Amino acid sequence: MNLTSLPSCFPPLTRRDRAELRRRGALDNLADEGRISFKEYGKQKIYLARQDQFEIPNIEELNQMKEQNADLQKQPEQQEKTIIDVESEIKSLQSNLTLEQIHEREVNLRMEVADVEVKKVEEKPEERKAVENMLSEKVSQWRKRKRMFKDI
């Protein structure tokens, strides 16, 4: 066998494969030391922590831990409520206008009203009558077309 073809026969290990080998080696070392145990199922190894190495807390300690856990879980909820309250207060303060902004807005609105009043055109009764007649004529033509379409 040629030495130059050796790397092509065995591809280099990928980063994932190397990490897997390191994990397996560490678990095997722990099993050799007796800290964990393992069972083999064909090609697979199942590693189990030995339960005798853990301390078993008594009932009082467990209840105390549960109370501490409940208190710790309430703290984020309270903090979220205060954050929501502060954010809503900030939004309300930001939405309020300052006195200067109110005066500017009033001036702008007064200018718009003046422009609208200038542009307002009074309509004459003859023009109104002509527009109404044209509308009624268009509506009657539309109704005729609608009847014709239904008859088809």
Automatic annotation (TrEMBL):
Q: Where in the cell is it found?
A: Nucleus
The Swiss-Prot or TrEMBL record describes its family as follows: Belongs to the HOP2 family.
Q: Which GO terms describe its biological process?
A: homologous chromosome pairing at meiosis; meiotic joint molecule formation; meiotic strand invasion involved in reciprocal meiotic recombination
| UniProt name for this protein | Homologous-pairing protein 2 winged helix domain-containing protein
Ordered alphabetically, the record's keywords are: DNA recombination, Meiosis, Nucleus
Q: Which GO terms describe its molecular function?
A: double-stranded DNA binding; recombinase activator activity
All copies of the Homologous-pairing protein 2 winged helix domain together span 26-49
The record lists the organism as Clitoria ternatea
Nucleus among the record's keywords? yes
Under the heading InterPro entries, the entry gives: Hop2_WH_dom (IPR010776), WH-like_DNA-bd_sf (IPR036388)
The record's principal subcellular location, in a coarse class, is nucleus
Which Gene Ontology cellular component terms are annotated? condensed nuclear chromosome; DNA recombinase auxiliary factor complex
UniProt superkingdom:
Eukaryota
